[in-house]
């Protein structure tokens, strides 16, 4: 009997199901991007450091948010930018965000960041997005990141030493159970950057890893 091969589900369908079935929690919300976008102890330090970085420039930066989710975090950052383009693959989520969040410098786009051409900007924000994607999707995205001067990347990774970039299927889960996490500087991505700064790090209780935000300058 031939072995059944597990084939990847299209990323758009996988992400749409996550929101439709509230697989990241938040049953009382219409759309919910998980605790990493809502728990105060996680998002308050993040916002403090990212906003401080953005405010350090006399001329405000243009920002592109890849995987903006329910926009519970992005809504606080918009006013600190020249323009803010928020992108997600889930069309109903983008329609909802467009209705709720309004600003002259804010635009929402429904795009597949692994396949579509991305808008130009000074800075790209990617918050806990790559951790849910296959290596092939991440590789396609990483090739586009060199077009941005600054990359603000947040990933949920194990505590202590781990093996980077074990492959998964794009979807709800992440690499943590495999003692792995995304490292764009390691193979197979090998992103070339000039400088790395740790903006913030939050260690989850019960040895459930850490959420680290890095600033890359390309």
TrEMBL record:
Residues 65-135 form the Methyltransferase type domain. It holds the Pfam family Methyltransf_11. Keywords: Methyltransferase, Transferase. The keyword Hydrolase does not apply. One of its GO terms (biological process) is methylation. GO terms for molecular function: S-adenosylmethionine-dependent methyltransferase activity. This is Class I SAM-dependent methyltransferase. It comes from Seonamhaeicola marinus.
């Amino acid at each position: 009997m031939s072995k059944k091969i597990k084939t990847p589900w299209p990323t758009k369908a996988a992400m749409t199901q996550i929101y439709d079935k509230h697989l990241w929690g938040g049953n009382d919300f219409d759309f919910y991007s998980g605790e990493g976008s809502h728990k105060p102890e996680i998002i308050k330090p993040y916002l403090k450091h990212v906003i401080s970085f953005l405010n350090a420039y006399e001329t405000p930066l243009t920002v592109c948010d890849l995987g903006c989710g329910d926009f519970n975090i992005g809504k606080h950052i918009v006013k600190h930018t020249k323009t803010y383009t928020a992108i997600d693959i889930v069309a109903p989520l983008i329609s909802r965000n467009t209705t709720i969040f309004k600003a002259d410098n804010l635009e929402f786009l429904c795009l597949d960041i692994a396949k579509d051409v991305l808008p130009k900007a000074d800075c790209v924000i990617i918050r806990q997005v790559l951790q849910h994607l296959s290596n092939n999707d991440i590789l396609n995205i990483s090739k586009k990141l060199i077009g941005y001067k600054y990359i603000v990347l947040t990933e949920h990774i194990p505590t202590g030493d781990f093996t980077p970039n074990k492959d998964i299927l794009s979807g709800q889960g992440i690499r943590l159970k495999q003692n792995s996490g995304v490292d764009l500087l390691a193979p197979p991505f090998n992103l070339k950057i000039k400088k790395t700064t740790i903006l913030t790090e939050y260690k989850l209780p019960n040895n459930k890893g850490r959420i680290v935000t890095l600033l890359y300058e390309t």
